[in-house]
Design goal:
The chain is mainly α and about 290 residues long. The protein has helices at about 10-25, 25-40, 55-70, 80-100, 105, 110-115, 120-145, 160-185, 185-200, 210-215, 220-225, 230-240, 255-280, 280-285. The radius of gyration is 20 Å and the shape is globular.
Length: about 290
């Protein structure tokens, strides 16, 4: 019995055909991204400015509670910029992963009535998440200028592979869990819990040096450091957080990011293969 969607869909030629289908439907993808953005802020007075509300409130809470009351800011210079750098990167991953996981269900009407490549729905989540990310990035750049440490250095180039790392792993996550969520509706809740765990397992509200000082086992430290989100956040900090130049950083950060990016691309292909295998019965399940 031939697998759902046909064996040819899982070959390199089949994957290339899937990519071509998505490119051919780029106008539909653009409309879905605009619809997602408009639906989030429909009838609101501030519109897209609400995309800043959550990270700014998180920044305020973490800065006061963790930074001042619990003393985390003592070992981290320019603590507000440090936290907002991590929140910006982590917020992008969370929005792609959680939004993409629920994207097929959220577009059930279109899936059942119109044929479009199913990948466009999680891709629309990527597009709307990137739009919100660039708004937050503008605020982050303004914060670095206000703090007296604008990122006018070659290290700003770390932002490019770090951003690619977040998008690749976030999209792989969205494809895999988005497909499973059609069959097992608990996947959306699992995705939310998993991204929350990843938040605390990454150096967003604490520094990598704190982990290095606490974790004596070198194997555990390597496992923690090579977490793709840890590497991405460290890359963003290298790009935008100049006040922490004296704090310890992992060796060969760019090499680590590059290796993680290659692994992420392999995982993305594997997630896409799972997505192709499961998409044949989406309409029936919905």
């Amino acid at each position: 019995m031939q697998p759902i969607g046909g064996l040819h869909r899982f070959t390199p030629r089949g994957i290339a055909a899937s990519v071509k289908d998505v490119v051919d439907q780029r106008e539909m993808l653009g409309l879905l991204i605009k619809r997602d953005l408009k639906s989030k802020y429909k009838d609101s007075a501030l519109g897209f400015l609400w995309s800043l509300a959550r990270p700014l409130v998180q920044l305020l809470i973490y800065f006061i509670v963790l930074g001042q009351f619990l003393g985390a800011a003592r070992g981290i210079p320019d603590f507000a910029v440090y936290i907002f750098t991590g929140l910006t990167a982590m917020g992008l991953f969370t929005e792609i992963a959680v939004g993409g996981t629920g994207s097929i269900l959220a577009n059930a009407g279109l899936v059942k009535k119109v044929y479009v490549p199913r990948e466009v729905f999680p891709l629309a989540s990527v597009g709307s998440a990137l739009f919100n990310f660039f708004i937050q990035l503008c605020v982050l750049l303004a914060a670095t200028i206000a703090s007296g440490h604008p990122p006018l250095h070659w290290g700003i180039l770390y932002a490019i592979p770090a951003l690619a790392l977040v998008v690749v792993y976030g999209f792989a996550f969205a494809l895999f869990f988005g497909a499973l969520n059609v069959y097992l509706r608990d996947m959306q809740y699992l995705a939310e819990v998993f991204t929350m765990l990843l938040f605390w397992a990454s150096p967003v509200v604490y520094s990598w040096q704190m982990v290095k000082d606490l974790v004596q086992n070198p194997v555990l430290l390597e496992l923690y450091t090579n977490n793709p989100l840890t590497l991405a956040i460290l890359g963003f900090q290298e790009a935008f957080w100049l006040a922490g130049e004296d704090l310890a950083r992992p060796d060969h950060l760019l090499l680590r990011i590059s290796i993680a990016l290659v692994i992420g691309l392999v995982l993305l292909l594997a997630s896409h293969r799972v997505f192709l295998r499961l998409q044949g019965n989406f309409a029936q399940e919905l």
